[in-house]
Amino acid sequence: MIIDIHSHLYKIEKVEEKLKEIIKKIKCEKIVLAGIEGNYWEYILGNEEVIKIYKKYPSFVIPFAHFRLGIDKKERIDKFLKIGFKGLKFIGPLKNYDDEEYFPIYEKAEKENLICLFHTGIVSRKTAENKQENISSSRMRPVYLETISRNFPKLIIIGAHLGYPWYEEAVEVARVNPNIYFDLSGPCIYSRNYEFFKEIFWIDNKVLGENSIIKKGKILFGSDIYYDRIPAYINDIKKFFERIGCKDYLEKFFYEVGYSILKRGGII
Ligand SMILES: [Zn+2]
Asked: Beta strands of the chain (E only): which ranges?
């Protein structure tokens, strides 16, 4: 079985059928679908569509609402809760993720036990022509999650893409802070060689190995790609963990870590 902690509803034809199909095909027990609002991420559907799909398929869909840091008011979270959202998705903040302006939002999320999924790392550009003055990847560096974790120790924090390309920062932040996890979606497993990951994960490290993020169970599966590409991606992930000598971690990666997070979030 699989738990997918990071997916979306894509603007593709027959998205509902394709979603149901992939769930069956990969034996996915739960899938987090995060809405993305605004014009920039034009290939992903928004909060409204996500909640509609959730109402139709509550057995396997977990709806996350896009909360726009710097634009949305804290009160919006109450509306999200009322209509059934189980978590929040953050991307494209107007200030650094750990700016104190956002603390009341994290405080509220912690109080309501809402799991928070943060985009971390570089943000891709889909349309080079348009001005996108409000996007800065540097505001989404993984290290900012540390401040949030220390101030809101019960908040469940998931960073996306292992902070690509700031992997070491992400790995250390997850290793040190009990409530921070990362998914490996995006270019991660293809972007560096196996030796690099073995080194930063402390796989063969005789002195530090016991405290590696693998031992601590801090990375988990999120797909964040079009559904038809997921099966090939799953195979590549299996190969990745084999090649870095962590075949035993696969069960945890695909299921157990996600399950424990969803349980702590009161979702299962
Ligand atoms: Zn995503």
From this structure: 2-7, 28-34, 61-66, 87-90, 115-118, 157-159, 180-183, 219-220
Distance 247 CA to ligand 1 centre (A): 26
- The reported pTM is 0.97
Q: What is the DSSP letter of 7?
A: E
Domain 2-190+197-264: CATH architecture, name and number where available: Alpha-Beta Barrel (3.20)
Distance 119 CA to ligand 1 centre (A): 7
Q: Where are the domains of the chain?
A: 2-190+197-264
Distance 38 CA to ligand 1 centre (A): 14
Closest CA to 49 of 22, 82, 83, 25: 83
User: What are the helix and strand counts (H, E) for the chain?
Assistant: 12, 8
How does pLDDT run across 42-52, given as a tens digit for each residue?
789 999 999 99
The C-alpha atoms of residue 233 and residue 241 are separated, in whole angstroms, by 12
**What is the identity of the amino acid at 164?**
Y
Q: How far is the CA of 209 from the centre of ligand 1 (A)?
A: 30
Dump pLDDT digits (tens) for 204-231: 999 999 999 999 999 999 999 999 999 9
d(CA 67, ligand 1 centre) in Å: 13
Alpha-carbon distance of 94 to 136, in angstroms, equals: 8
- Backbone dihedral region for residue 46 (phi beyond 0: left; psi -120 to 50: alpha; all else: beta): beta
- Give the count of alpha carbons within 13 A of 65, CB side only: 21
pLDDT digits (tens, 9 = 90+) for 126-152: 666 666 668 899 999 999 999 999 999
Looking at residue 222, what DSSP letter applies?
-
What radius of gyration do the chain's Cα atoms show? 17
Amino acid identity for residue 218 in this structure: K
Residue 173 CA to residue 148 CA, distance in Å, equals: 11
Nearest to 255 by CA among 213, 209, 222, 216: 222
